[in-house]
Design goal:
The chain is of the alpha/beta class. It has a single domain, classed as P-loop containing nucleotide triphosphate hydrolases (Rossmann fold). The protein is 37% helix and 28% strand. The mean pLDDT is 92. Bound molecules: adenosine-5'-triphosphate and magnesium ion (MG).
Protein backbone atom coordinates (compact mmCIF):
# COMPACT_ATOMS: atom_id res chain seq x y z
CA UNK A 1 0.00 0.00 0.00
CA UNK A 2 2.82 2.38 0.88
CA UNK A 3 3.68 3.10 -2.75
CA UNK A 4 0.10 4.26 -3.37
CA UNK A 5 0.39 7.23 -1.04
CA UNK A 6 -0.29 10.52 -2.80
CA UNK A 7 1.31 12.44 0.04
CA UNK A 8 3.91 11.60 2.61
CA UNK A 9 5.29 14.35 4.83
CA UNK A 10 7.87 13.16 7.29
CA UNK A 11 9.56 14.83 10.27
CA UNK A 12 9.01 18.40 9.04
CA UNK A 13 10.73 21.29 10.75
CA UNK A 14 9.55 24.75 9.75
CA UNK A 15 8.71 28.17 11.13
CA UNK A 16 8.80 31.90 10.56
CA UNK A 17 12.09 33.66 11.09
CA UNK A 18 13.50 32.47 14.38
CA UNK A 19 10.13 31.11 15.60
CA UNK A 20 9.98 27.39 14.94
CA UNK A 21 6.42 26.09 14.51
CA UNK A 22 6.75 22.53 13.25
CA UNK A 23 8.84 20.14 15.32
CA UNK A 24 8.81 16.92 13.35
CA UNK A 25 5.18 16.97 12.20
CA UNK A 26 4.18 14.70 9.36
CA UNK A 27 1.26 12.96 7.76
CA UNK A 28 0.31 10.48 5.09
CA UNK A 29 -2.57 10.46 2.62
CA UNK A 30 -3.22 7.30 0.65
CA UNK A 31 -4.69 7.19 -2.85
CA UNK A 32 -8.43 7.76 -2.66
CA UNK A 33 -8.24 8.47 1.03
CA UNK A 34 -9.61 11.48 2.93
CA UNK A 35 -7.63 12.65 5.95
CA UNK A 36 -8.67 15.24 8.56
CA UNK A 37 -5.99 17.48 10.06
CA UNK A 38 -7.04 18.60 13.54
CA UNK A 39 -5.66 20.74 16.32
CA UNK A 40 -6.37 23.88 18.29
CA UNK A 41 -5.69 27.37 16.94
CA UNK A 42 -2.03 28.05 16.36
CA UNK A 43 -0.92 24.42 16.61
CA UNK A 44 0.58 24.49 13.12
CA UNK A 45 -2.08 23.05 10.79
CA UNK A 46 -1.83 25.80 8.18
CA UNK A 47 1.93 25.89 8.56
CA UNK A 48 2.12 22.14 7.90
CA UNK A 49 -0.01 22.59 4.78
CA UNK A 50 2.04 25.56 3.59
CA UNK A 51 5.25 23.63 4.21
CA UNK A 52 3.96 20.71 2.17
CA UNK A 53 2.95 23.07 -0.64
CA UNK A 54 6.24 24.93 -0.70
CA UNK A 55 4.95 28.27 0.60
CA UNK A 56 6.78 28.00 3.91
CA UNK A 57 10.40 26.93 3.80
CA UNK A 58 11.17 23.70 5.59
CA UNK A 59 14.44 23.40 7.47
CA UNK A 60 14.21 19.66 7.91
CA UNK A 61 12.21 16.64 6.89
CA UNK A 62 10.86 15.36 3.63
CA UNK A 63 7.75 15.79 1.47
CA UNK A 64 6.79 13.23 -1.18
CA UNK A 65 3.96 13.63 -3.67
CA UNK A 66 3.06 10.49 -5.61
CA UNK A 67 6.35 8.97 -4.55
CA UNK A 68 8.39 11.94 -5.76
CA UNK A 69 10.58 13.92 -3.38
CA UNK A 70 9.31 17.51 -3.70
CA UNK A 71 10.98 18.88 -0.56
CA UNK A 72 11.98 22.50 -1.07
CA UNK A 73 10.28 22.78 -4.47
CA UNK A 74 8.58 26.07 -5.30
CA UNK A 75 4.83 25.97 -4.75
CA UNK A 76 3.81 26.01 -8.42
CA UNK A 77 5.87 22.87 -9.05
CA UNK A 78 4.46 21.08 -6.01
CA UNK A 79 0.97 21.94 -7.27
CA UNK A 80 1.83 20.52 -10.67
CA UNK A 81 3.04 17.32 -9.03
CA UNK A 82 -0.62 16.76 -8.17
CA UNK A 83 -1.92 18.94 -5.35
CA UNK A 84 -4.92 21.26 -5.65
CA UNK A 85 -5.09 23.80 -2.87
CA UNK A 86 -8.05 25.73 -1.48
CA UNK A 87 -6.31 28.31 0.68
CA UNK A 88 -7.55 29.85 3.89
CA UNK A 89 -9.10 33.08 2.59
CA UNK A 90 -9.86 31.72 -0.90
CA UNK A 91 -7.60 34.09 -2.87
CA UNK A 92 -9.68 34.23 -6.00
CA UNK A 93 -8.96 36.91 -8.61
CA UNK A 94 -11.30 39.80 -7.76
CA UNK A 95 -10.95 41.58 -11.09
CA UNK A 96 -11.50 38.49 -13.24
CA UNK A 97 -14.93 37.04 -13.95
CA UNK A 98 -15.95 33.67 -12.57
CA UNK A 99 -15.38 32.18 -16.01
CA UNK A 100 -11.93 33.74 -16.30
CA UNK A 101 -11.00 32.52 -12.84
CA UNK A 102 -11.91 29.00 -13.87
CA UNK A 103 -10.07 29.21 -17.16
CA UNK A 104 -6.83 30.22 -15.41
CA UNK A 105 -6.93 26.91 -13.55
CA UNK A 106 -8.11 24.85 -16.49
CA UNK A 107 -5.12 26.09 -18.45
CA UNK A 108 -2.74 25.21 -15.63
CA UNK A 109 -3.83 21.57 -15.76
CA UNK A 110 -1.33 19.58 -17.73
CA UNK A 111 -3.54 16.53 -18.00
CA UNK A 112 -7.07 15.78 -19.02
CA UNK A 113 -8.93 14.65 -15.99
CA UNK A 114 -12.14 13.95 -14.24
CA UNK A 115 -13.16 17.61 -13.97
CA UNK A 116 -14.38 19.46 -17.03
CA UNK A 117 -15.97 22.90 -17.02
CA UNK A 118 -19.34 21.24 -17.69
CA UNK A 119 -18.92 19.00 -14.72
CA UNK A 120 -17.96 21.94 -12.53
CA UNK A 121 -21.08 23.75 -13.67
CA UNK A 122 -23.34 20.82 -12.84
CA UNK A 123 -21.66 20.43 -9.46
CA UNK A 124 -21.91 24.18 -8.74
CA UNK A 125 -24.88 25.59 -10.69
CA UNK A 126 -24.36 28.96 -8.98
CA UNK A 127 -21.02 29.35 -10.72
CA UNK A 128 -22.69 28.85 -14.09
CA UNK A 129 -25.30 31.49 -13.22
CA UNK A 130 -22.60 33.90 -12.05
CA UNK A 131 -20.22 33.15 -14.91
CA UNK A 132 -19.97 36.81 -16.03
CA UNK A 133 -19.70 38.30 -12.56
CA UNK A 134 -16.37 39.43 -11.19
CA UNK A 135 -14.72 37.68 -8.29
CA UNK A 136 -15.39 40.60 -5.97
CA UNK A 137 -19.12 40.51 -6.75
CA UNK A 138 -19.59 37.05 -5.27
CA UNK A 139 -20.92 36.09 -1.87
CA UNK A 140 -18.58 34.34 0.53
CA UNK A 141 -20.12 30.98 -0.30
CA UNK A 142 -19.82 31.56 -4.04
CA UNK A 143 -16.19 32.60 -3.62
CA UNK A 144 -15.51 29.41 -1.73
CA UNK A 145 -17.18 27.30 -4.41
CA UNK A 146 -15.09 29.10 -7.00
CA UNK A 147 -11.93 28.42 -5.02
CA UNK A 148 -12.80 24.71 -4.83
CA UNK A 149 -13.78 24.59 -8.50
CA UNK A 150 -10.48 26.16 -9.47
CA UNK A 151 -8.53 23.62 -7.46
CA UNK A 152 -10.47 20.74 -9.04
CA UNK A 153 -9.86 22.01 -12.57
CA UNK A 154 -6.14 21.48 -12.06
CA UNK A 155 -7.06 17.75 -11.89
CA UNK A 156 -5.23 17.14 -8.62
CA UNK A 157 -4.51 13.73 -7.16
CA UNK A 158 -4.96 15.40 -3.79
CA UNK A 159 -7.31 18.25 -2.89
CA UNK A 160 -6.27 20.24 0.19
CA UNK A 161 -8.78 22.46 2.03
CA UNK A 162 -7.87 24.71 4.93
CA UNK A 163 -10.99 25.81 6.85
CA UNK A 164 -13.06 25.88 3.67
CA UNK A 165 -16.43 25.92 5.45
CA UNK A 166 -15.47 28.64 7.94
CA UNK A 167 -18.12 31.34 8.28
CA UNK A 168 -20.41 29.94 5.60
CA UNK A 169 -24.15 29.28 5.75
CA UNK A 170 -25.20 25.70 6.60
CA UNK A 171 -26.49 24.98 3.10
CA UNK A 172 -23.26 26.11 1.50
CA UNK A 173 -21.31 23.97 3.95
CA UNK A 174 -23.42 20.98 3.02
CA UNK A 175 -22.61 21.62 -0.63
CA UNK A 176 -18.93 21.65 0.19
CA UNK A 177 -19.08 18.38 2.14
CA UNK A 178 -21.10 16.82 -0.67
CA UNK A 179 -18.48 17.93 -3.14
CA UNK A 180 -15.75 16.31 -1.05
CA UNK A 181 -17.71 13.05 -0.99
CA UNK A 182 -17.88 13.14 -4.79
CA UNK A 183 -14.19 13.94 -5.10
CA UNK A 184 -13.36 11.01 -2.87
CA UNK A 185 -15.84 8.64 -4.50
CA UNK A 186 -14.04 9.03 -7.79
CA UNK A 187 -10.68 8.14 -6.30
CA UNK A 188 -9.10 11.53 -5.66
CA UNK A 189 -7.61 12.09 -2.20
CA UNK A 190 -8.57 14.83 0.22
CA UNK A 191 -6.76 16.54 3.10
CA UNK A 192 -9.03 18.79 5.12
CA UNK A 193 -8.72 21.16 8.06
CA UNK A 194 -12.10 21.91 9.60
CA UNK A 195 -13.82 22.30 12.95
CA UNK A 196 -16.90 20.24 12.14
CA UNK A 197 -16.01 16.84 13.63
CA UNK A 198 -19.31 15.26 12.60
CA UNK A 199 -18.89 16.21 8.97
CA UNK A 200 -15.25 15.14 9.06
CA UNK A 201 -16.24 11.77 10.49
CA UNK A 202 -18.66 11.27 7.60
CA UNK A 203 -16.22 12.21 4.85
CA UNK A 204 -12.79 11.19 6.13
CA UNK A 205 -11.08 7.85 6.70
CA UNK A 206 -8.32 8.88 9.09
CA UNK A 207 -7.26 11.87 11.16
CA UNK A 208 -4.07 13.44 12.48
CA UNK A 209 -4.03 15.79 15.48
CA UNK A 210 -1.29 18.40 15.77
CA UNK A 211 -0.21 19.82 19.07
CA UNK A 212 2.50 22.46 19.16
CA UNK A 213 3.89 21.41 15.83
CA UNK A 214 3.99 17.70 16.60
CA UNK A 215 1.63 14.84 15.85
CA UNK A 216 -0.22 14.18 19.11
CA UNK A 217 -2.51 11.49 17.83
CA UNK A 218 -3.49 9.67 14.65
CA UNK A 219 -6.24 7.20 13.98
CA UNK A 220 -9.31 6.05 12.11
CA UNK A 221 -12.21 8.52 12.05
CA UNK A 222 -14.40 6.01 13.88
CA UNK A 223 -12.30 6.99 16.93
CA UNK A 224 -13.61 10.55 16.63
CA UNK A 225 -16.87 9.04 17.83
CA UNK A 226 -15.72 6.10 19.96
CA UNK A 227 -12.98 8.03 21.75
CA UNK A 228 -14.46 11.48 21.46
CA UNK A 229 -13.53 12.67 24.94
CA UNK A 230 -9.84 11.92 24.54
CA UNK A 231 -9.76 13.62 21.17
CA UNK A 232 -11.70 16.66 22.31
CA UNK A 233 -9.07 17.13 24.99
CA UNK A 234 -6.66 17.95 22.16
CA UNK A 235 -9.13 20.30 20.50
CA UNK A 236 -10.72 22.35 23.24
CA UNK A 237 -9.13 25.36 24.86
N1 LIG B 1 3.16 34.32 8.56
C1 LIG B 1 3.47 34.08 9.85
N2 LIG B 1 4.47 34.76 10.47
C2 LIG B 1 4.80 34.51 11.75
N3 LIG B 1 4.19 33.60 12.54
C3 LIG B 1 3.19 32.90 11.98
C4 LIG B 1 2.77 33.10 10.62
N4 LIG B 1 1.73 32.26 10.36
C5 LIG B 1 1.53 31.57 11.50
N5 LIG B 1 2.39 31.95 12.48
C6 LIG B 1 2.46 31.37 13.83
O1 LIG B 1 2.73 29.99 13.72
C7 LIG B 1 1.96 29.25 14.67
C8 LIG B 1 1.11 28.21 13.96
O2 LIG B 1 0.17 28.89 13.15
P1 LIG B 1 -0.76 28.15 12.10
O3 LIG B 1 -1.44 29.20 11.33
O4 LIG B 1 0.03 27.14 11.38
O5 LIG B 1 -1.77 27.39 13.06
P2 LIG B 1 -3.16 26.72 12.77
O6 LIG B 1 -3.14 25.41 13.46
O7 LIG B 1 -3.43 26.73 11.32
O8 LIG B 1 -4.18 27.69 13.54
P3 LIG B 1 -5.69 28.14 13.17
O9 LIG B 1 -6.56 27.04 13.65
O10 LIG B 1 -5.86 29.39 13.97
O11 LIG B 1 -5.77 28.37 11.69
C9 LIG B 1 1.18 30.27 15.47
O12 LIG B 1 1.88 30.55 16.64
C10 LIG B 1 1.13 31.48 14.56
O13 LIG B 1 1.05 32.66 15.30
MG1 LIG C 1 -4.88 27.63 10.12
Amino acid sequence: MATKDVLRAHDLQAGYGSAQVLFGAGLRVGAGEAVALLGRNGMGKSTLIRSILGFTRVTGGRVEVNGRDVTGWPSHRVARAGIGWVPEGRQIFASLTVHENLMVSARLARRQGLWSLDRIHSMFPRLKERERNFGNQLSGGEQQMLAIARALLTQPALLVLDEATEGLAPLVRQDIWRTLMTVKAQGQSVLVVDRDLEALARVCDRFTVLERGRVAREGEVSELVSDRQAIERFLSV
